[in-house]
Amino acid sequence: MTRNKGNTKFSKYETEIKALENVRSMKISTGNNVTVDNIFFLVGFQISQKCRFFLFALLLVVYNVTICGNLLIITLVSSNKNLHTPMYFFISQLSISDILLISDIAPNLLHVLLNNGAAISFINCMTQLYFFSTAEASECLLLAVMSYDRYVAICNPLHYISIMTGMLCVKLVIIFWILTFFISFIYIILFSRLIFCGPNIIDHLYCDLLPLKEISCSDTFPIKLNMYLLSIPFVVIPNLIIVISYVSIVRVVLRIPSNISRQKAFSTCSSHLIVVAIFYLTIFTIYIFPTKGHKSNVNKILSLLYTVCTPLVNPIIYCFRNRDIKKSFLEMIQKNV
């Protein structure tokens, strides 16, 4: 089988490439479907062994801290009646999304770092991509509805209770999760129809949209078209809601005569704004802005920012910048001491 010139930089993975090609040729000779029986090889970071072990240890710590931090928020919100408000309900749902995201990426990434690259089957690759897409899409929708919640609380406080009812919040969350799981499933079906001619070397840390498109030898125009179409409900509309909400919030807050009241109003939005900024800045850097000039390791580090670092940063921001959560945490400790 001929090898593309673009894969010469993977010469040190010659053994893995040959193994993948041998497995694939055996599958083809038995008459099985070429795409479904594909096996991919995730390259990971092309760095020294000491650096890889350091990243492995760091990622392991980050993974455990992230899981514990997000579980803590979910526990506090569900057990403390003072936190049974729309804002904290959405924060707990954001924590669920973060747990889903990092649990989908981190375990296999640890394996890739420890072994200096690792093979992954087509089914496992599509499964990873499915839950990755679901978690990212749900976070986009949750961040948008959280900004609307802040808009109603600041711009229309007298009607906040009647607008942001508990039933409405539950319905929105259920719709969000069903929508993201369903749309992600359709998206994976489209990706599963791509043909991969081999060698299936993915120069990335996990199965992601762009690296899979790059190694496919079939027409990816339908995938690109669907990416643009799906970006409307999951990226464009949520961003519009966030921008419009905060423009309205800023206008209302600036009209408040008291500086103390202004600071208090802005402080209720600061945590959410920081999370939104980190999330969308990394997303846009990878998927929206041109990245052809970036080195592969730079793109991998940027990918780590929103798949590993963002789920870690979210609970830290909400725990350390939120008095109610800190108070609930201290009360929980006092009860258990």
Break the fold down into its secondary structure elements and pairings.
Blueprint: H1 14-29, E1 39-42, H2 49-79, H3 86-114, E2 118-121, H4 122-155, H5 160-163, H6 166-192, E3 201-202, H7 209-215, H8 221-254, H9 259-288, H10 296-320, H11 323-336
Parallel strand pairs: 1-3
Antiparallel strand pairs: 1-2
Please provide a written account of the structure:
This protein is an all-alpha fold. Helices cover 74% and strands 3% of the residues. It contains 11 helices and 3 strands; from the N terminus they run αβααβαααβααααα. A 3-stranded mixed β-sheet has the order 2-1-3, with helices on both faces. Helix 4 (122-155) runs antiparallel to helix 9. The longest helix has 34 residues, at 122-155. The model is unreliable at 1-8 and 23-36 (pLDDT under 50).
Features:
mainly alpha, 3-stranded mixed sheet
Question: Could you say which overall geometry the principal axes of the C-alpha atoms support?
Answer: globular
Spell the H/E element sequence: HEHHEHHHEHHHHH
Low-confidence stretches: 1-8, 23-36
Ends apart, CA distance between termini: 66 Å
How large is the radius of gyration? 22 Å
The percentage helix is over 70%
**Number of H- or I-type helical stretches:** 11
Tell me the structural class. Answer: mainly alpha
Instruction: Look at the structure and give the mean pLDDT.
Output: 82
Major β-sheet, in short?
3 strands, mixed
Strand order of the largest sheet: 2-1-3
